[in-house]
Amino acid sequence: HILARLMNAHPEFRMAMKDGELVIWDSVHPCYTVFHEQTETFSSLWSEYHDDFRQFLHIYSQDVACYGENLAYFPKGFIENMFFVSANPWVSFTSFDLNVANMDNFFAPVFTMGKYYTQGDKVLMPLAIQVH
């Protein structure tokens, strides 16, 4: 929710190319990965952003309950106004780079979280942010 609120607070993060024109979406929605243990594959699922955390959590929970076991790559369908969040909970990193091939004018930010760890009395989690 924090990432989605940040994304929606700044028009620079809501920019995209549509039909050859630069647009600024009214809102953008997080698209996140869902891991399927039985097939060791991922799906991409998005949830509608809502400013109210409780409402957003409810929407997210419903989406995961409804589509979480669906093995399609985009089980809920694809929308244009989204940004990407993924987690690699088994890897802790100091840097992470994602190369998106054959996607001209790709402006959507990508957030990647890694394995959390303790450092002294703090719990830390790496977060890579890729913006274009």
UniProtKB/TrEMBL annotation:
Keywords: Transferase
Protein's UniProt keywords contain Transferase: yes
InterPro entries listed in its UniProt record: CAT-like_dom_sf (IPR023213), Cmp_AcTrfase (IPR001707)
Entry keyword annotation includes Chaperone: no
Gene Ontology molecular function terms on file: chloramphenicol O-acetyltransferase activity
Protein name: Chloramphenicol acetyltransferase
